[in-house]
Amino acid sequence: MHVKDKELKEALCSIVVTCVSKYGYLEPVTSTIVNLLHKHEHLPIHLADLVTLSEEKYHDSSLLVAILQEIGGLNPEDFKHDKSGAESVGDFLVALADRVPKLMTQNLSLITPHLDSDAYKMRNAVVQVVGKLVAKASKDPSLDNAAGDETLRLRSKQVGCSVPSF
Q1: Tens-digit pLDDT profile for residues 3-60
Q2: Who is most buried in 40, 50, 78, 145, counting CB within 10 A?
Q3: CB atoms within 10 A of CB 42
Q4: Closest Cα to residue 161, out of 125, 122, 128, 117?
Q5: Helix axes 62-73 and 44-58, enclosed angle (nearest 10)
Q6: Is-contact 129 97, C-beta < 8 A?
Q7: Domain assignment of residue 104, yes or no
Q8: Cβ atoms within 10 Å, residue 103
Q9: Percentage of the chain modeled with pLDDT above 70
């Protein structure tokens, strides 16, 4: 999906999001997105745009939640051997934290199991996500206090559970 023309990119994203939100293709699209993240290092930003469009245009967060559930359910040991996949998934998560911080805060618990991972890239990505969410919560008054409190609680929990990198 390396498309330079913004209108074409938005049209392609709209087609995929319409298939998910109106025609029930959530599971196939979710597994395809996670597979693309593992295999192609240049796609995290574009796929984050796709997920963001789903929320902004259709007010449907089911795609984001399904992807976070799938990423959270992945075996952390797999990322020890697949460093480029871990980096790509991490870039995707960080991009989502920038674009949809409120939804990421509400669903942060889905990816926190990767804090216990031996894969440095995934641990680092989750910490970056938490850091971005904390920064956005402290700057953005539109984020509710409960979301900010949850982020701060998880951040303090992460600090207490720091795992040395090997």
Answers
A1: 568 888 888 889 999 999 889 899 999 999 999 999 999 999 999 999 998 898 888 8
A2: 50
A3: 10
A4: 117
A5: 140
A6: yes
A7: yes
A8: 19
A9: 81
Report if residue 17 sits inside a domain: yes
Residue 140's φ and ψ, nearest 5 degrees, are -105, 110
User: Alpha helices of the chain — where are they, by DSSP H?
Assistant: 6-23, 26-39, 44-58, 62-73, 78-81, 83-99, 101-106, 120-139, 145-160
Residue 166 lies in a domain: no
Rounded Cα–Cα distance for residues 102 and 79 (Å): 27
Structural domain boundaries, residue 26: 6-160
pLDDT at 83 (0 to 100): 84
Indicate the SS3 state at residue 12.
helix
Got the DSSP string for 31-62?
HHHHHHHHH-TT-HHHHHHHHHHHHHHH---H
pLDDT at 157 over 80: no
Is this prediction's pTM over 0.85? no
- Residues 38, 88 contacting (CB under 8 angstroms): yes
- Cβ distance 130 to 158 under 8 Å? yes
Number of domains in the chain: 1
